[in-house]
Design a protein that fits this description.
By secondary structure, the protein is an all-beta fold. It has strands spanning about 1-5, 10-15, 20-25, 30-40, 45-50, 55-60, 65-75, 75-85, 95-100, 105-110, 110-115.
Length: about 120
Amino acid sequence: QVQLVESGGGLVQAGGSLRLSCVASGSVFRIWSMGWHRQAPGQQRELVARITRDDIITYNDSVKGRFTISRDNAKNTVTVYLQMNSLKPEDTADYYCAVVQYGAYYVWGKGTLVTVSS
C-alpha cells in the first residue's frame, strides 16, 4: 500500500504564496499519478493539479498560471509539491493529496487547510 504525508497548509493574505508537499511511501511502484484536490465548504471536491508517471500535467483552469506542480523521485519515496502563487480568497479550501494507482485505485491524504484572507 501507499502511505501519504502532507504538509504546508496555513493562513496567507491574498496575493501571497504557499507550498504544499506530499510524500508517498510504501508501494510507490503502483503509482500512476499524484496530485492535489481541494474541497471548499459546501462544494464538491475538485482536481487542482496532477502529474502522471509520464510527466503529463493537468491543471484546473482556475489555477493555471498561478500554481505549479512538480515531483521529486527518490529511491523509496515520491514527493509532489504544489507551489501556489497569487493566492485568492476563492482558493480557500481543504487540500488533499491524491495518488492514483494502476487500476484507478485512489489513495487520499488526510488533507491540509489553506485559508486565504482578503
